[in-house]
Amino acid sequence: MRQYISLGELGYIENRKRQALDYIKADYPRFAVLCLKRFIYFWAGPPRLALIWWLAEVKNSLFLASSVLMFWGLGRALRQRKPGAWLLFWLILLYPFIYYVVYPGQRYRHPIEPEMAILGVFLLTEVGKRNPDSARK
C-alpha cells in the first residue's frame, strides 16, 4: 500500500507491469508451462483439497465432463454447419484466453456456462436423434 501511495495509481501499475514482463522474459518456457496449466485448470478444474479424498476427484470430474461435452458439441455443431456455431466457437476460443495468462478461477467460467450447457444439450439431443433402425440391429 505504501508503494501504491508513493507512486500513485499509474506509477504503481507501470511498476507492476514491468515486473510481470521481466518475469515472463526471464523464463519463457516456465511461463508457457504455467499458461498450459491454467488452460487445464480453466476447463478441468483446479486442484482441490477435501477432507474426503474422493470428493475433490468427483467435483473435478464433473467440471471436466461439462467441458468435454461442450467441446464435443461445438465440434459437432461446426461439422453440421449449424447457424451460430462459429459465434460459439469464437466465444469459447477468445473469452477464456486472458485467464490462461492471469488466473483461471472457477467463477470466471460462469459467464460462458449457459453456452456450454447449450452445446452439451445439443450434443446429447443429436445422439438421441440417431437412426432408430440402427439401434435394433
Basic shape:
elongated
Q: How many strand elements? A: 0
* Beta-strand content estimate: under 5%
Number of domains: 1
Q: Report the sheet with the most strands, covering strand number, pairing sense and barrel closure.
A: none
Taking all Cα atoms into account, the compactness measure Rg is: 21 Å
Structural class: mainly alpha
Distance between the amino and carboxyl termini: 71 Å
What is the ordering of alpha helices and beta strands? HHHHHHH
Low-pLDDT stretches are none
- Number of helical runs? 7
Mean pLDDT: 90
Tell me about this structure.
The protein has helices spanning about 1-25, 30-45, 55-80, 85-95, 95-100, 115-130, 130-135. With about 140 residues, the protein is mainly α. It has one domain (about 1-135). Helix 3 (about 55-80) packs across helix 6 (about 115-130). The N and C termini lie far apart (about 70 Å). The model has no long low-confidence stretch (mean pLDDT about 90).
Summed up, what is this model?
This protein is mostly helical and 137 residues long. It has one domain (2-136).
Keyphrases for this structure?
7 helices; mainly alpha; 137 residues; single chain; elongated
List the helices and strands and how they pair.
Layout: H1 2-26, H2 28-44, H3 53-79, H4 85-94, H5 97-101, H6 113-128, H7 132-136
